[in-house]
Design goal:
Layout: H1 14-46, H2 60-87, H3 90-122, H4 130-151, H5 155-169, H6 172-182, H7 202-234, H8 239-242, H9 245-253
Helix pairs in contact: 1-7, 2-3, 2-4, 2-5, 2-7, 3-4, 3-5, 3-7, 4-5, 4-6
């Protein structure tokens, strides 16, 4: 038995992970809600009006965190896909499938809020800017993954086919991130960077970071909840699933 920390290999089992996810997701959901309320309050009620963009800039408190999460989730999908192809673990494919709908949601939210921001700033809802175009490609990659895995009846074959899309498509993520550096684009550069001081007021930065953390915890909560459903579907034939109180209660009430 591992007394020095968590035995992560133990939780590679769908049975063990099902219990862990059940304990964690409600706490993640509560924390996400609290942080989202705090972030929205800072961003829309406390943060000052921008001297150049006026009140319209406040869309960044949704747009930027959503854009970050759309990229982070796709990288997480690629990570789980590599694990799945390398170790042939059942849980990896389920985690990748659980991540995809939320990633697609954030990619859509990034594009939609970007259009709302772009109209007053650029005078157009959409321009074929390098960052916007690469983000649109990311959205299509999410939809392609969901469509492909849903079209294949055999779940394990679908996982492997989807893993190839997730891994190959991951090359688009650095293209999105560095597009404003590599090409001459209309899109403004990063307001937050690991290599230099932020180019915004502290209260604006805190509002954006709280929203980013809220979106991250929301993603974790939703993925854990969704993967539990996938585990029940795929492991329905096993004794441990059939002996679960919630499964027996559902069967008894049918």
């Amino acid at each position: 038995m591992n007394h020095t920390g968590i035995n992560w290999f133990y939780y590679a089992s769908p049975q063990a992970f099902y219990g862990l996810a059940g304990r964690l997701w409600p706490w993640m959901a509560v924390l996400a809600t609290l942080l989202c309320v705090a972030g929205l309050w800072l961003g829309f009620a406390v943060a000052p009006t921008d001297f150049q963009q006026g009140e319209g800039y406040r869309i960044i408190f949704l747009h930027v965190p959503a854009s970050w999460m759309s990229m982070v989730i796709y990288l997480a999908m690629a990570f789980w896909s590599v694990l799945g192809l390398t170790f042939n673990t059942r849980l990896s494919g389920m985690m990748t499938r659980a991540l995809a709908p939320t990633g697609a949601l954030f990619a859509f939210l990034s594009l939609w809020t970007g259009a709302l921001w772009g109209k007053p700033m650029w005078g157009a809802w959409w321009v074929w800017d390098a960052r916007l175009t690469s983000e649109l490609i990311l959205f299509f990659l999410y939809l392609g993954y969901i469509a492909l895995t849903s079209a294949i009846d055999d779940a394990r074959r679908g996982d492997k086919a989807g893993a190839l899309i997730a891994i190959v498509g991951a090359i688009n993520v650095p293209i999105i991130y560095f597009s404003v550096t590599w090409w001459n684009t209309l899109h403004q550069g990063a307001s937050v960077s690991l290599t230099r001081s932020p180019s915004m007021a502290a209260v604006m930065l805190w509002g954006m970071l709280l929203m980013a953390l809220a979106f991250w915890l929301y993603t974790v909560a939703l993925v854990l909840y969704r993967v539990r459903s996938l585990i029940l579907q795929r492991e329905a034939h096993t004794a441990w699933v059939q002996n679960l109180p919630e499964v027996q209660a559902a069967g008894g009430g049918a």
